[in-house]
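Lab manual, section 2.4: Encoding a predicted structure.

Procedure: take the sequence of the chain (132 residues), apply the prediction step described in section 2.3, and record the output as C-alpha cells. A sample record is shown.
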Amino acid sequence: MKIIENSSVKFYIEYGIMHSEFKEKLKLNLETGKQMIDLRHKISDNKKQYWCYDFKNIQYISKDARDYAENHGQEYLHATAFIINSHLAKFVLNAFMKLKKADIPLKIFKTKEDAVNWLLTIKKSNEEKGIY
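Recorded output:
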C-alpha cells in the first residue's frame, strides 16, 4: 500500500483506489487546500486516480479554498466518491455539484464501503473501454 501524509491529511492507494482521511477536525483554508491537492498529485504520480474522499472531518471550507479546488481539484482524477456524515455538508456539496459542472463523475455516500464499490464499478467500466 502506497501512503503519503502531512500533519492534516493522509492519502493512500489500496486496491487501485486512492483514499484520503483527515487526521482531525479541520477548517480548510486556501493554504491547507493547496497542500492537500499537491499531496494528492504527488501520490497519484500525475496519473488519473479513483478517489474515495472522506469528508467527515471537514468543518468549514473557505471561499478561496473552494475556488482553488474548483480550478485544480479535478486534475488527475477519473471519479470522486465523497463520504459525508453530516446533512448540512451533504446539502452544501450537493448544491455546489449542481451549480458547478464537474468534469468527472462525483457522488456522495454515507459509508466507505458504498463509495469504494461505486468507484470500483466505474474503474471496471473504464478498463473495459481501455481507459486507464
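Check your result against the sample. The chain has a mean pLDDT of 91.
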